[in-house]
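Thread: "does anyone have the structure for this chain?"

Original post by V.I.:
We have the sequence but no experimental structure in hand. Need at least a predicted one for the grant figures.
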Amino acid sequence: MDNLNKINTFAKQHNCIIGICDALPLENVQLKNAKKPPFVTPNLEKRINPLLSLPTAKSVIVLGKSYSPSPYKNLSSLGNGTDYHNTIKTLLQKLAKLLACQNVIMVDSGVLAERPFAIKAGLGFWGRNNMVISPKLGSFFNIGLLLVDILLPPTETQQSADNLQCPTDCNICMKSCPAGAITPYFVNFEKCVSYITQKKGLLNLRETILLQKSQQLYGCDICQNCCPFNDFSQQQTEYNTAEILQMQQEEFTKKFGDTALAWRGLSHLQRNAKLITRKEENY
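Reply from O.Q.:
Generated one for you, tokens below.
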């Protein structure tokens, strides 16, 4: 079985989508002028050039794995299910072993800009909310990159994905964002509630106001939940904020230890809970 057939079989076996593109630097990407969060490398060349991460790279394999929306309005999918950093990395390790090649794996923590590579590999198109939208999965999927030193044929961008785009008269995500952080195809991370809930240290007054307005405990999926490309119809409840405030470390580890939320820890989650329940403040 050749490598391409191995990859296609792997995708079917693991219920994921996979696209392939060359390892040449990205072109025509608007990354230079956009202010980035502090955990993103400021080095543009490292973000667009796979060869700086793997000098022998010939192809980039992009894997997408769907996840379930959160059952809670105020707690994003980051607080539910096994940490995608681990699950996606495990899948890519299995695929790399199958291909028996020199490789580099990146899942969120790598230097490359994952979303532009996902689009280059044909997984989907840019959504107005700055998410990659797949014709098959919507935007509810996580992305991982596998840089390999073998030459693979690039994925032919499916016609449906190539022609799809957000309707020009649709601005539901922009209207729904509680912080007004979204403009077409761009999210101001300094206003983004998801970023604010994950930001370390003390929050300033503006950030506190946005957090209280949104009432989000951790993360934020509002711009995805409202998107017409996502089949989102489930009923959501509120996660009990009082439970978070009274939670001990042992219970936190039991409930959230395997999730991506555990990255920041209990004290961080309790900071957010205290701020959104602080009713006596009048800003």
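V.I.: this helps a lot. The beta strands are 17-22, 59-66, 103-106, 125-126, 132-133, 141-148, 182-183, 186-187.
O.Q.: and The chain has twelve helices and eight strands.
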